[in-house]
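Predicting holo structure, adenosine-5'-diphosphate bound.
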Amino acid sequence: MDFLEKIKEYRAYEERLKWEGTFADYLELVRKQPEIAQSAHSRLYSMVISAGVSEKNGHKHYHFFDDSIYGLDESIERLVEEYFHPAARRLDVKKRILLLMGPVSGGKSTLVTLLKRGLEQFSRTDEGALYAIKGCPMHEDPLHLIPDHLREAFFEETGIRIEGNLSPLNTMRLEKEYGGRIEDVPVERIFLSEDKRVGIGTFSPSDPKSQDIADLTGSIDFSTIAEYGSESDPRAYRFDGELNKANRGLMEFQEMLKCDEKFLWHLLSLTQEGNFKAGRFALISADELIVAHTNESEYRTFISNKKNEALHSRIIVMPVPYNLKVSEEEKIYSKMIRESDVSNVHIAPHALKTAAIFSILTRLKESKSRGIDLVKKMKLYDGESVEGFNSADIKELKHEHQDEGMSGIDPRYVINRISSAIIKKGVPSINALDILRSIKDGLDQHPSISKDDRERYMDFISVARHEYDEMAKREVQKAFVYSFEESAKTLMNNYLDNVEAYCNKNKLYDPITGDEIDPDEKLMRSIEEQIGISENAKKAFREEILIRISAYARKGKRFDYNSHERLREAIQKKLFADLKDVVKITTSSKTPDETQLKRINEVIARLIDEYGYNSTSANELLRYVGSLLNR
Ligand SMILES: Nc1ncnc2c1ncn2[C@@H]1O[C@H](COP(=O)(O)OP(=O)(O)O)[C@@H](O)[C@H]1O
Ligand SMILES: [Mg+2]
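Done. Tokens:
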């Protein structure tokens, strides 16, 4: 019921947005709110800006792309600053086709789709509103009705430059239906919509033999020629090509360079002169942004062909490489999984990160100049601190290989391997090792991986696995120590009692028998050894601790578990070392005793409650860490 209400509400909302009037009324609107007359390029730029911009380390971050595109900040910054912004200001780049060039599954289509959906939304806001001559199949800009000789005066009055000529169809309608009175021509607010073919279009190449230029520029409607008497009557023409329909908005040209050249030439005139040729008419003006995409090898082939020279200078190429940050790659996977049909499967913590480590490594290039290995480079890029390097080094490293990120493993491959791991395992819970195994198995079937690459990739799988091992151990250690905060405290107090007795040359009392006993040297050493305190240094260490305790006491403070960093570390490590046995026991065939079982269950509960595991993945983790410790 609620849902039906929402549909109704939305319909009412759309109803309220509608506007219709004469051209005279429209002029009033334009005077009040000149933005409604902005160009398609300018509207797109406003849309991106209106979602917010923030600045970090001298780089701009455009929030419009948040939640959909990850790790492409630099490409996006360049795209906005070198294309969207200057094009919005009618600078020359506007006259070029925007070509996104990057490796397969690197987010090009996603980026364009985001712009399209964004424009649809934006045209429904006050800021992004736009209007068209009513009944025009190309939603022509009403200002085109203003004849040339009045445009200068119009500019002086409103500051708005009018580009483009009234289309043949509307020229005819103006004469026939309105007796030339432009003020009477009806105008309506339009709402961009790809589904309804208003202001958003997509053109994708198909078989060049059968693909017709009409798909792009429309065609004669032969059934109406008899009615109108001539092929050159604009009423006998269907302005229903993608270029017609995308007028006022954006047209996506998928895989542009796979297309037959004759299609490209049409685009050239459109971007260069703002018009294109359709049928037997005078040129048709169009105001739209053309975004094309292609991969690098097609682009290279295209560039190397002399015949295409004229086209080169009219294309602006924006590289869209793969993301190079592990943490952003994880977000890409999470998003793709969320959108897939395996979204209900439990994915153990660190599993996606481990896969991301592998992917990023395949995309990075060795640095020749800066003695930094790939793993460190990967961490540095992801914002981790790496000894001996800082953010200035990142810049230099990026500069070293301009084409970094243009090759390597693509996100879709990883997602496919995750899906297949899920199916193979048959349990709705998978972990880092399942994924790595599946990635490895898939490499053999990957069509575009050379033998050399495969070997390198195998190494990267080992590296990713090693990184995972460290994460897994740390995780269990954390969960274990945390669960045993009480044990840690008891162990420390026990240690301190012994240290005190040792330093003061006293005896201790056995809590059960009450007998006097010597300080427990074995216990003290087992803790001190955890942080590398040698036999010779033990006395100094113990004395230092006693001094610290009395300093605390003098200030009225209590010396506790967190008061001495190194001691705390030693205690944690000791506890963790003890865990080794516990884990070993539970993983071996012998049944663990009651206390051991209790301990293990506490760790598992902690992993589930605090660290995002489920019982399958928590048990797998413990077993795995147990096996690592046994090595
Ligand atoms: N940087 C990225 N940010 C978000 N998603 C990405 C990114 N790179 C790839 N993807 C995801 O990978 C898949 C393939 O991307 P797509 O846009 O079709 O690539 P392309 O058009 O470049 O071949 C999509 O599901 C997309 O969401
Ligand atoms: Mg694509």
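Residues 108-109 surround magnesium ion (ligand 2) (CB under 6 Å).
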